[in-house]
Each structure stands twice: as C-alpha cells, then as structure tokens.
C-alpha cells in the first residue's frame, strides 16, 4: 500500500473494500453523484438488487451519503455521493489493519486492477497510445533495498498527484477532452523467492 498520498484511508473503508462490488460502486461515485440504477448500468453482470444491497451497506458504513431524491416517471430515484476520500493507506494506517483484514482489501484492489486491464485490452485501448508504460522488474533486494524501493514508489505517487493537480488546472482552462487513465504501482515478494528476469517495455 502507498506510504504517502493525499488522504489516509478512512477506517470505514476497511469494511467497504471487503467486497469488489462495493469497490466498484465507490469508484463510480468518485466520478460524481449517481443513483443505484445508473450505477448498475455501469457495472457488468451485477443485478440492481445486489447494487442496492451494497449501497445500503456503504450508507450504513457512512462511506456514501444520500444527496437528493428525484421523482422520475412515478418513481423516486435516490442520488448518492461518496463521503470518503481516496482509498489510501500510509504505513502507519496499514499497520493498524489486522492481518485478517489485509488480504480481502488487497484482493479487492487487485480484482479492480484486473478488471480495468481486461476492459482496456478488450476495448483495444491498452496499446492505443504508443508511449504508454508496461514493465515487470524482478529484483533481488535486502531489507535496505526493499525500503529504498518503497520510498521511491511513494515519491512517484506524490509526483503523480502533483501532475494530476496541474493537469486538472490545464483541462479547466482548455477545451481538450481528458483521457481517462489508470496508473497501478505494485511491489511484492514473490511466492517462490525467485528473481528471474522478465520482459518489459
């Protein structure tokens, strides 16, 4: 998990992130307020009943909040928005998460990354821009080297958020349509403790 970021994870998110559908709902609501039916249309193979159930869980956890109700064709549409910041953990906050809770949170984030990759590849978008980045870099690290990589990736994440902030200012001042992108950063021990070289670009 990230050592630095714009926000330490809200403790309520630990429970919310246990289920991938709740992670997906939060991702949709970070783009702006929405209703269960509109959220369901953006998710794949998830029923409206299931979306409604997880919205109730998120509301009970105070991760989302009801902002308005709208009457549409004789029915009441409930509009929700996210009530928590980005799901960021610094080292201190991550150490407070019990080992039992860490794996479901990690698994939910990795499932989301996997879905993002599959969607991009399936839509033929992943290699659309020539100067994108994809690499796999097996390393042999002692504890000091491990910590150096952690610090490097944390600084990179800080730089990413600064780039994003400057980028938002430019977009507001121009008429350019922004490109939706995802940057995923991972560092982890291998299961077999082997460090064979792998391809990258």
Compile the SSE list and pairings.
Blueprint: H1 12-16, H2 20-30, H3 36-42, H4 48-60, E1 64-72, E2 75-82, H5 91-96, H6 99-122, H7 143-173
Antiparallel strand pairs: 1-2
The dominant shape is globular
**Total E-strand runs:** 2
Can you count the helices?
7
The top-level CATH class of the largest domain is Mainly Alpha
The assigned structural class equals mainly alpha
Which strand-content bin applies to the residues?
5-15%
Low-confidence stretches: 1-8, 195-201
What does the radius of gyration come to?
A: 19 Å
Provide the helix percentage: 40-55%
**Which H/E pattern describes the elements?**
HHHHEEHHH
Can you walk me through this structure?
By secondary structure, the protein is mostly helical. It has helices spanning 12-16, 20-30, 36-42, 48-60, 91-96, 99-122, 143-173; strands at residues 64-72, 75-82. Strands 1-2 form a two-stranded antiparallel sheet. α3 (36-42) crosses α4 (48-60). The radius of gyration is 19 Å and the shape is globular.
Looking at this protein, list some descriptive labels.
201 residues, mainly alpha, Arc Repressor Mutant, subunit A, 7 helices, disordered C terminus
């Amino acid at each position: 998990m990230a050592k630095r970021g714009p926000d330490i994870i809200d403790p309520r998110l630990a429970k919310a992130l246990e289920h991938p559908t709740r992670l997906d709902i939060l991702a949709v609501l970070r783009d702006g307020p929405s209703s269960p039916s509109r959220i369901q249309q953006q998710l794949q193979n998830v029923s409206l009943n299931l979306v409604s159930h997880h919205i109730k869980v998120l509301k009970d956890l105070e991760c989302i909040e009801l902002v308005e109700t709208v009457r549409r064709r004789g029915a009441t549409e409930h509009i929700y928005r996210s009530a928590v910041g980005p799901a960021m953990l610094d080292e201190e906050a991550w150490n407070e998460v019990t080992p039992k809770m860490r794996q479901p949170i990690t698994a939910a984030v990795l499932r989301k990354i996997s879905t993002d990759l599959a969607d991009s590849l399936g839509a033929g978008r992943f290699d659309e821009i020539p100067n994108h980045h994809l690499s796999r870099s097996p390393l042999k690290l002692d504890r000091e080297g491990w910590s150096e990589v952690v610090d490097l990736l944390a600084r990179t994440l800080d730089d990413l958020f600064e780039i994003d902030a400057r980028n938002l200012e430019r977009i507001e001042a121009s008429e350019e349509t922004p490109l939706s992108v995802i940057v995923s950063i991972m560092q982890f021990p291998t299961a077999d403790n082997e460090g064979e070289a792998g391809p990258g670009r």
